[in-house]
Specification:
This protein is α+β, with helices and mostly antiparallel strands and 85 residues long. 18% of the residues lie in helices and 27% in strands. It has a 4-stranded mixed beta sheet. The longest helix is centred in the middle third of the chain and has 15 residues. The model has no long low-confidence stretch (mean pLDDT 95).
Length: 85
Amino acid sequence: MNNNKILVTVFVPMLETEYDVFIPINKKIRNVTRLLNEAVVDLSNGCFPLKDDIMLYNRNDGTILEPLKNVKDAGLVNGSQVILI
């Protein structure tokens, strides 16, 4: 396994769909959020829009993941579940 990435489940309420995606642990949440938004646009064949004000939440407790924290510092690990809104 690549130690620089973790596998997370991304839930997209607007689509009522989940995606399993590898994300880099050394990137900031805001950059990962943008990457996930772009991936969901592709995976949904354009059904989900590319948004500037998109946020990433911890699915377990509903807290917003701090945009300026690294993925690792935000507490995400293999198997974490997040919500993209």
